[in-house]
Amino acid sequence: MTGSATVPPPGPAERLHAIVEQGLCIGCGLCQAVAGPGSISVRRVASGYEAPVVTGPLDHATVDTIYDVCPGTRIDGLPDRLVDKRTVVDPVWGPWRRIVRAWAADPDVRHRGSTGGVLTALCVHLLESGQVDHVLHVRASSTEPTFGEPTLSSTPDEVLEAVGSRYGPTATLRHVTDALDLGRPLAFVGKPCDIAALRNWGRHDPRVDDLVRVWLTPVCGGFGTPDATRGFLDRVGIHPAELTALRYRGHGCPGPTRAETADRVEERHYLDFWGDDESQWTLPWRCKVCPDGIGEAADLAASDTWPGGSPDRVTSETDPGTNAVVARTEVGRRLLAEAEAAGAIEVEGDIGPAEMGEYQPHQVRKKYAAGPRHEALGAAGRIQPVTHRLRLRDLAAELPPDEVARQHEGVRIRIADGRATQPTPSIDATESPTGGSP
Ligand SMILES: Cc1cc2nc3c(=O)[nH]c(=O)nc-3n(C[C@H](O)[C@H](O)[C@H](O)COP(=O)(O)OP(=O)(O)OC[C@H]3O[C@@H](n4cnc5c(N)ncnc54)[C@H](O)[C@@H]3O)c2cc1C
């Protein structure tokens, strides 16, 4: 026999799985909403993450749409129509209208909030003022305590139940089309990648722009890997099967990481979960190459205000919590002003991009590195995320050539040694499906 065997082109499932295998899936669940649960189920897989598993017929056209909306493959900044002559565009921090330090006026919300409770206070204000009927956001999972799950809150109490940051896998958009089917105005709170995904879906489904009236995001340095969370549980002597609840932070700023079983509570400092500095953070690959951890496509982004990016063990014991809040659009600027006037939040004063850089040095570094990291993915024959309006090329052009080369080499090494790769998603037979409403 002569000649070489012909390799068949990848089928739809293989193309979908490539996003996961190349470490670009964040498990947001949008592909399930797009294809329908009869074709794709985003659920806990053997790797411990949530990822899409093909459960029924899937064609190339649907996978083309998924590549166009998945925040692993496409991430855009603020739509042009939301930028006007009053918008300032900072090279790193992107478009903004006003940046302030603020907190929830209700001391209980401030205390329970991840930082200062601003996102929760704004959502409550939006419901109470009748601007939206629902808030689509996430709460602690009802089936897997280390995960988050999507929830549609229609009352202030429901919003408050979802307070706090969740650092485990969280399929924020798994049920987004059900929320849109209600045909009622809503606010959306999601990580910057969730925001990018829903903005992407808005190019296909006109209901997004019609119904999603306010887009809110926590600034995000990345979520914790399932292995890191298991490691934390090991260190506090809790087997994952015993765990009944996990609060990553909140009830103080940042508040303790609190693991509960039927008969025991273990609390540790936030730094005992994450480590004392950025070099100890264990993040999914997608988060390491994230081009937008700062929520450029949201109306308003809220962050911590710890100088250097991490809390101090001593002062954090009594820190009441202060958010930095970046209002990017007229909707965001107006919401901030209205919520302050209505007594929902307290604004300490105005700040700017320089202070944001002091609070978030890791975001500044990653913003500069993202362009070279993406180019290195392309050079290695990997999926290179498509980005628009994030200024990545301009920022990369400011880097010295040896730093660009270092970023390329870092990606090449991580691809070669497997750190940028995930197994083909397969159902973890030991786990129950993860849920969420609506
Ligand atoms: C994974 C992750 C990484 C983060 N990294 C940084 C960082 O590097 N620097 C920084 O300054 N801040 C970071 N934050 C943001 C910070 O923890 C606070 O969320 C932010 O300051 C807002 O605080 P708050 O008190 O106003 O939020 P809250 O009032 O407590 O409201 C939080 C809101 O976020 C939603 N939410 C919580 N977890 C998730 C999730 N996993 N996915 C989608 N929505 C969620 C909740 O449903 C709730 O509506 C991160 C948050 C997350 C979830």
What report would you give on this structure?
A hairpin with a 3-residue loop joins strand 4 (88-90) and strand 5 (94-96). With 438 residues, the protein is of the alpha/beta class. Helix content is 34%, strand content 18%. The strands form five sheets. An eight-stranded mixed β-sheet has the order 8-7-9-10-14-15-6-16, sandwiched between helices. A three-stranded antiparallel β-sheet has the order 11-12-13. The chain has a two-stranded antiparallel sheet with strand order 1-2. It is built from 17 helices and 17 strands. The chain folds into two domains: 12-76 and 363-416, no CATH class; 80-226 and 277-361. The structure holds flavin-adenine dinucleotide (FAD). Flavin-adenine dinucleotide is lined by residues 113-120, 137-138, 148, 162-167, 170, 172, 189-191, 194, 218-221, 223, 250, 302-304, 323, 360.
Summarize the structure.
This protein has 438 residues and is of the alpha/beta class. The protein has 17 helices and 17 strands. Flavin-adenine dinucleotide binds at residues 113-120, 137-138, 148, 162-167, 170, 172, 189-191, 194, 218-221, 223, 250, 302-304, 323, 360.
